[in-house]
Every structure is written in C-alpha cells, then in structure tokens.
Amino acid sequence: MTQKLVVANWKMNILLHEAVALLESVNIGSLHKSLVICPSFIYIPTLVDAFKKLDFGAQDCSANDLGAYTGEVAAAMLYEIGCKYVIIGHSERRISCGEDNQTVGRKLVKALESKITPVICIGESLEVRNQGSTLEHLFKQLEEIGISRNKKFVIAYEPIWAIGSGVTPSVDEVKAIFNKIKGAYPYLQLLYGGSVGPENADEFFGIDVLDGLLVGGAGLSAQKLNQILS
Ligand code: PGA
To answer: Could you mention a single GO BP entry for this protein (predicted)?
Structure first.
C-alpha cells in the first residue's frame, strides 16, 4: 500500500441525500490518502455512479454463493455494482448477529472469489484486555479466520472497548501489537480503528507499520474526514 488507507464505516447512519451532501464536501481532488467509503448496501450504486473518483466498500457480505438466502447480499453482487472493498467481521456483527471466526473466514473466501478486497476486523473485549490476553486473542482470531502467513490481507485491529467510546489504546500499545502481528504475518496490511478522529489520527499515522485507519463516527463528518485525509 503506497498511500495510507482510510476506510469510513458509515454503519446504519445517514440518509441518502445526506450521504450525497457529505461526499460533495469531501476534498476528493486533493486527497493525500486513499479513501474508501462504506455506506449501506442500498446507497452503493447511486454513490458509485455519482462519485467516480472515490472507492466504495460494503459493510458485510454473505458467506454463501448466490442462492436462497433471504435478506443476504452476495459478494458477487457487490462486485457487479462497483464495490472494491468489504468490511468483514466487524465486532458489531459478531455481537449482534453471532458471527464467529469461522463465518468470517467463509465470508473472506467469498469476497476473494469475487475480486473484492476484504477488510477483516479483529479486536479484543475489555475483559480480555484486562486479563492481559489481547495478543493471544488476536492471534487466535487470525488463526481461526484462516489468515495465511504468506498472503497479503487487510486487517483492521479494532479493540471493542475503543469503538464509539472516545477511549483508545495508546499509540505505543498499537505499535507493539502491530509489530507482534507483523512478526508472524509479515504481509498483512494493518489498520487501526476505534475512536479515531482528527485529534488523534496523525499520531496513529505516525506508526511506521500502520497502513491506515478505519473510522466510524468521524467518517460521518466531511470536515473531520477532510482533516484526517489532509
Ligand atoms: P468509531 O467506530 O470510529 O466511531 O469508534 C469505529 C468502527 O466501528 O469501525
């Protein structure tokens, strides 16, 4: 990854007209980092058409091929409408939809088969952190998802306790975790996510082994996005 990557996960926020207005205010012409916007599935075709200079991703995909799976969206469908990325295994889906590492692994395979870059989320709960088992937990997740040690994947490290809380691990903690992961998985591209905003993005960008950021709340403000991307 030559330019640092910023992935904005809009979750189930903002209406379509607000999404269009927001992206019209992003300084797309002068981006210093690669930007991927992940809106709701149903906005993707409209936004892909309206903002050709931007890359779009989905927030999830099915673990199945096309078929009788009511309410699901296949990776092949995402590819056809112009999605380049898909977030897989976000902790909100793991918690609210019961997704486990094996399911995340199956989704990863479907994304790759459809030529979409998966952004695979891993991260520990506060309980795991307090037990001092963060690294062990992250390595178990990578193992169970089926991340290969000699392939290039995009992994987003998002401590669950940092998401939407305004609290983050220190830059040194993230750096130490990334160095350990890179030691075992040298080809991974590592993003950090969890309460990232204009006030702390540059500190995280300062980590030499960090390839980018995954932002939630800050991605819903054009002003904040422009600051993070500048
Ligand atoms: P946050 O969300 O930036 O609002 O903490 C991050 C995420 O859920 O990916």
So the answer is: glycerol catabolic process
Q: Is 7 in the pocket of ligand 1 (CB under 6 A)?
A: no
Q: Which domain holds residue 192?
A: 5-229
Question: What φ, ψ does residue 143 adopt, rounded to 5°?
Answer: -60, -50
Distance separating alpha carbons of residues 20 and 176, to the nearest angstrom: 39
Name the residue of 196, 199, 200, 220 whose CB sits within 8 Å of the most ligand 1 atoms, as the mutation to test its pocket: 196
Strands (DSSP E) contained in the chain are 5-9, 34-38, 55-58, 85-88, 117-122, 154-157, 189-193, 212-215
Amino acid, single-letter form, for residue 30: S
Strands (E) across 132-219 are located at: 154-157, 189-193, 212-215
Which tens digit of pLDDT belongs to each residue from 101-143?
999 999 999 999 999 999 999 999 999 999 999 999 999 999 9
Task: Return the best residue to mutate from 9, 119, 220 for the ligand 1 pocket (most ligand atoms within 8 A of CB).
Answer: 9
Kindly report the backbone phi and psi dihedral angles of residue 175, in degrees, each rounded to the nearest multiple of 5, phi listed first.
-60, -45
Number of domains in the chain: 1
Is pTM beyond 0.85? Reply is yes
Per-residue pLDDT tens over the stretch 11-21: 999 999 999 99
pLDDT tens-digit series, residues 86-95: 999 999 999 9
Banded model confidence at residue 169, pLDDT cuts 50, 70, 90: very high
Q: Summarize the confidence of residues 161-185 as an average pLDDT.
A: 97
Active site residues: 90, 158
